User: Fold these one by one.
Assistant:
Number 1:
Amino acid sequence: MNFDRNKVEMVKRRYPVGTRIRLNSLCNVERDMPAGLCGTVIGVDDQPSLLMKWDNGRSLSLMPFEDDFAVIGQEMDVETGQQEQSL
């Protein structure tokens, strides 16, 4: 697979695991993915796509350079009670 490691690393830094996202719109039509839906980044793949855990139970990935969304926060680390990473 052909991918740009620099682009992948940039996306990982910009959207670390635990980043909370609010969806505005997707580049394609997906059922049960309305604008305003929130979710949490659980990883980044080599595309780079954001691997997501959506609040509605879905796991559809986001394409950071194609989909429209906003960062709304960072989840807290359960053990320390602090933000996992700053944005």
Number 2:
Amino acid sequence: MLRDTEVAAVLPAKDMNRAKDFYRDKLGLEPMEPGDDNLMFQCGNGTRFLLYQTDNAGTARNTQMGWVTDDVERDVQDLRSRGVVFEEYDFPGLKTENGIATSDAGKAAWFLDSEGNILSLFERP
């Protein structure tokens, strides 16, 4: 049943106005409908994600959502030009260089949104 059902990510936001500004100004996304309590955004192929108000925002220490891209370097450069700051990691099995990790699985880059949520870009080989 679920394999044929659309999936939508859900992200927490402590400050909805700040989050809306970040997603609009830094990522170039507009909410599907105006709202104060929740904001729904649509991305490629009909995928969506919801931002909702909670004081728990920014407490997860794992990647919460990611975009699949055909060119991580291009997208990192574009987002940096908008003020997005990419994380640098150096863990066993994961090391970024200039914000991008490369492995047999592909290339990936991570950044924080205005609410402390960890987001990613991923390029398959």
Number 3:
Amino acid sequence: MTDSIPYPIGTAGQPWGASERDQWRARQTRQRRYDQDVVPRIDALAARYDKVTYGQLDYAGEAYDLLALRNRHFDPTLPTALITGGVHGYETSGVMGALAFLEREAAAYAERINLLVAPCVSPWAYERIHRWNYDAIDPNRNFRIDGPAREAVALMELVQSTGGSFLVHVDLHETTDSDESEFRPALAARDGKAYEPGEIPDGFYIVDDSENPQPAFSQAVIAAVERVTHIAPADAQGEIIGSPVVAPGVIEYSLAKLGLCASITGARYTTTTEVYPDSPRTTPSECVDAQVAAVCAALDYALEHG
């Protein structure tokens, strides 16, 4: 899609109102099931971890429990890590990567670090394979305690209730071809702005915090993932999705200023992973493996360097 092809909802140059949001909602259809894909795996993990219901969404009569898992014996003397997936519901390997980490690798960190894992922050969007929630809001630009995204507020309240300080937070995401074919054009239409086409990077990359950069930590994550899948190169301008590449596979955002999920703990070590599942050079299982590798590398580095 280019800026010469209008988005099918709204009037060019005019932000959406209630009518346009209703039209957008009418286009969204359930394509998979949170209660079948995600909840049973969380329930199975509840044999080893405490299952926490930290909120409930009710969108037009469709109810979703917001679920997290945490160490059964949360030790206040240990550092704490937050792992989040599915902030954007359509980013599948984020959800599946968080679950796979718990199933396959988390036991190795017992008695070393407290784990709090929210595998699917946005279940309504997970089912619609969408970036936004029911209110046509991107949760990952609205992690503010008084913000409009109910998913974001609930997760922030969970973090605040946990107590203690967080050492590391890994937020698992994807960058997909649909970012350019659907989501960015929809964003421009919703906000009454012109759509400016961008370039989708082919490969894995991460986002560090420009207000608290941790270059050695970031490179440890990239080095681990590079053994699993390919790393996105910079484009001709030396950028990835419009941001300068500060190291191979690494860009920086001001996480808190942008209201991004990775800002909510105030952890020393934070990263947002970005897998590219549409690449012909990867597979769905490899994308999940890359997310797991990123989580393990982040925890290993944080535990070693404090």
